[in-house]
Specification:
A hairpin with a 2-residue loop joins strand 1 and strand 2. The protein is mainly alpha-helical. The longest helix is centred in the first third of the chain and has 36 residues. It is built from 5 helices and 4 strands, in the order E-E-H-H-H-H-H-E-E. The chain has a two-stranded antiparallel sheet with strand order 1-2. Strands 3-4 form a two-stranded antiparallel sheet.
Length: 136
């Protein structure tokens, strides 16, 4: 068993996906960035409400604090998680997600095949990525 944050991952899974640690670190960073954005967004909404209260007879709206923080947190976390997913695809396939989609999801790059005969014959055989996973 391999420790991955607070979870334990089976050795065979960790062996097939050596970039799992980097992906987990990226996801952790994305979630921490989301928490920071929630606090900053709520703090900014609080400051705006305090300033508005000085000018207008306006009471503090806690729902606005939560909504501003939640919305900002969602947007940032979603964008950062998408970056992590793209990073994972790149680490697993050696291709960017755009290249991966254009090639029809074939995850074994042509340069990993040693000869022209293997490239021609590999089209009819079951394809596997460099970790042994079957790829359609």
């Amino acid at each position: 068993m391999v420790n991955l944050g607070v979870r334990r991952v089976e050795d065979d899974v960790a062996a097939r996906h050596p970039a799992l640690q980097q992906y987990a670190a990226c996801q952790s960073h994305a979630f921490m960035k989301g928490i920071g954005t929630f606090l900053a967004g709520s703090g900014a909404a609080f400051a705006v409400q305090r300033m508005a209260r000085q000018k207008l007879p306006y009471s503090l709206q806690w729902s606005l604090l939560l909504a501003a923080g939640s919305l900002g947190s969602y947007v940032v976390t979603r964008a950062e998680t998408q970056k992590c997913s793209n990073f994972w695809i790149y680490l697993e396939t050696g291709k960017s997600p755009q290249e991966f989609a254009v090639t029809g999801g074939l995850s074994q790059p042509a340069e990993n095949l040693s000869s022209a005969e293997e490239r021609d014959g590999a089209a009819t055989l079951v394809r596997r990525n460099r970790y042994g996973d079957v790829v359609e």
